[in-house]
Task: structure prediction
Amino acid sequence: MNNNFIRSVFILLFGGFITKLLGLVIKIILARYLPSNTFGLYMLILPTFLFCISFSQFGLPIAISKLVAEEKRRSKKIFISILPVFIIVHFIMFIIIFFSSKFISTSLLHSPDTYLSIKSISFVILFTSISSFCRSYFFGKGKMLPHVLSNICEDFIRLLLYLFILPKLKLLSSKYLLLFLILSNIISEAISTFVLLLFLPRKVHFSRKDIFIDFSILKDCLDISIPNITSSFIGNLTYFLEPIILMHFLLLSGYTSSFITSEYGVLSGYVLPLLLLPSFFTSAISQAIFPKLTKCCRNYQFHEFKKKFKIAFLFSLLLVLPIFILFEFYPSFFLFFIYHTNKGINYLKILAPVFIFLYLNSLFSISLESLSLSKYNFFSTFISSLLRIVFLIGFSFFRIGIYSYILSLIVSILSNFLFSSYILFKHLKNI
Result:
């Protein structure tokens, strides 16, 4: 590994730690300033929000990163060529979200108070996509500092907004509090984009011949993005449907709506964010290694590809194992220290060993991407998501409450990891 890779990893690790820390502080502020019912509703609409963001980006950020990393074409030509797709997708998503918000809030989530906040998502997605596309350029160039600074600024702005404005809004009803939480993303994403623009090359000139679509670039981009958006669509659709399915089938099993909302809030608001905190380690390594692996594939240096992958895997493993031990043996300490609660201790102990595989899977996924095997990421996501929904429905009839969700999550994580690792090692063995 050269010094550039090590530097990139440490920049991403430092930035990931700061953003995760800010994210935890934000969660603490939300948990303390929001009424419990409003906090539960926010966690309920969060899957819808993330699903809309993911689909509006149409898998284009990872495609841009890969094409920029290959260094075969000029970056400005790549962005100009995908611009029509960007405009069409966002126009369609705006119409869909804006006019289906009533149906989603009342018929799917059974929470009319979420109507305004879901409708407001249609205005937010444009800002999140622009920010993501700018980041993808720097990923492809292997420049991690702009990405890190933009993320820190984004979370810091959100923190300030919540810290100073939420206390003044606490007397408002849930629907207006939720509306503020969603619309505040416009400000934070705009600041994030501005920071990224500061790092773009100054001497970029456009001539008339540059302003046209290169259909070969567009085709290459869609060849990468479509499997990615399909995979992301399935994964986020599953995440979107989970609270709906959980609420429906647990109600049929005799559980009350307040019990389901409360326990789902503990799991998705406390336990899962804590378990996902260490993911910034493997995410940083994966993001830093992606341009290197892509260049190895472009130059047919597969021996070097294997070497870089092994080092990245060992590095990831050494980082996540100590975290698993801490979560497994000291769950109450972390929950009380961060959230001032002892709720969710058993959930944390059960899920901690399984999340090791989730942490490592990001490296396998990005490696398949660099090998132009993104279709297998789609198959992996499809299989694990299907199993997740099937087992969630099945376990819901055993009257084990929120544990039906936990068990289905375990099945999904393990199946995703096993499939991805099998495909990757099989391919590496044959090259």
Summary: The chain has a mean pLDDT of 81.
